[in-house]
Amino acid sequence: MSDTQEVSEHAASLADELDADVDEVEERLKNLLEYSVPLEEAERTVRRRYGSDASEPETAEATDIAELSPSDSRVSVEAVVLSAGRRSIRVSGDDTVITEGELADDTGVISYTAWDETDFDPGDSVRVEGEVREWNGEPQVNVDSSADVRGIDGDIDAVEEPYGVRSLAELEDGDRAVTLEVGVVESEEKTIQGRDGETEITSGVFGDSSGRLPFTDWENRDLDEGDSVRLENAYVNEYRGIPQVNAGEFTTVEEADDLDVDHTPPESDVAETVSKGGDFDVVVRGNVLSVKEGSGLIERCPECGRVVQKGQCRAHGDVDAEDDMRTKAVLDDGTGAVTLVVGRELTEKLYGGTLKDAQEEARDAMDKTVVTESIADNTVGHRWRVRGNVSVGDYGANMNVSEMEKADDDPADAAREVLDEF
Ligand SMILES: [Zn+2]
After folding, report:
1. pLDDT at 56
2. CA of 318 to the centre of ligand 1 (A)
């Protein structure tokens, strides 16, 4: 029997029991199941929705946050609200506003999601009921739609204070209701296929004195390069190991006093960056071991920018390809290897000439690989300081390089190497 059939049968018997409309009951059940709520719990929730308290479990005593585990079914928590962010999500075709954030008591901190919009704010003492689920390997409280969410008398001691302005360096995947004061370092409008068709968004890079992170403003507000802004109720999701700041419908964006976004990117090593699953704007130093195939003179599709082979684009077929240059090189720093992906401007420097020079050299030699060989001669065997964004996938680690300079004679490196020998 398929899952859909099973849900329909449960919905039918539940609707019968509650004397309710079967389609409506089925819809509610499906919504809950979509969020991996166990069927039994979903049925309980639907019963409560229809005012039936059959098989309603006893309200538990408040549990310490440190004691919560995904094996708990229904729990009750008394805690201070550290953050309460609203976000609109689409469930089975309907937009629903949920509240997300963190709760703390005197034993610990836990994330929560409330499936109904709540009216509590950071600093409020609340009692919430729901179930504990695992999310990103951590327990999280799912405050369900009919849970009792109310303020309690008296203050609760908590291990954390409600968060103030956060720094970019401390943000992690899953952070909600984040307040930031940042500068817009890069900004670009884009058209994407959203859930309601084509939509305009703004994406770019935010900076503060702690670091830089990519952002997306789904409401396409005016975020221009050089602006300083204060965001409230932003949220963070991870993409390829890198946290991304999101500004949504409920995020407020206001002009802020001019911020200094000067920032020296942190030094890292390949092993550390790979173990984090990626890194945004880091510096790595190591030796270039080889220059890979697909380096030197390449051809790109004028429509989508993809590299094409023999004038054939994967997406656009036979195209009038445009010449470009790039370098893909393997850099090893002793802890691991990363593939550097270097764009045209820096590749011209590595080659020691312009795209036009490269085209001429290739034409004279009737062979494009002479260009690749020149790049290899100038890079392989040297020590480099590279800056860029690292992403890690099944194919290994790639760094999109923004700066690349020789570090052969770097006294700091030499000193470090000498020290390493002891
Ligand atoms: Zn194409």
Report:
1. 46
2. 9
Measure 313 CA to ligand 1 centroid, in angstroms.
5
pTM of the predicted model, to two decimals? 0.67
Compute the distance from residue 150 Cα to the ligand 1 centre, in Å. 55
Report d(CA 155, CA 236) in Å as an integer: 29
**Residue 240 C-alpha to ligand 1 middle, in angstroms?**
24
CB-based contacts of 289: which residues, under 8 Å, 6+ apart? 329, 330, 331, 332, 337, 380
Residue spans of alpha helices (H) in 19-95: 22-34, 39-49
What are the structure tokens assigned to 171, written together? Answer: 């943000």
Query: What are all long-range contacts of 49-53, with beta carbons under 8 Å and residues at least 24 apart?
Result: 49/145, 49/146, 50/18, 50/20, 52/17, 52/18
Whether the Cβ atoms of residue 263 and residue 210 lie closer than 8 Å to each other: yes
With 0-12 / 13-18 / 19 or more C-beta atoms within 10 angstroms meaning exposed / middle / buried, residue 184 is buried
**Distance, CA of 370 to CA of 296 (rounded, Å):** 9
Centroid of ligand 1 to alpha carbon of 298 (angstroms): 14
Cα distance between residue 292 and residue 373, in whole Å:
10
What is the Å distance from ligand 1's center to 310 Cα? 13
User: What proportions of the chain, in percent to the nearest 5, are helix, strand and coil?
Assistant: 20, 45, 35
- Count of CB atoms within 10 A of residue 9's CB? 12
Q: What pLDDT digit, counting tens, does each position of 244-265 carry? A: 999 998 999 999 988 888 778 8
Question: How would residue 162 be classed by pLDDT, with cut points 50, 70 and 90?
Answer: confident
Mean per-residue pLDDT of the chain: 87
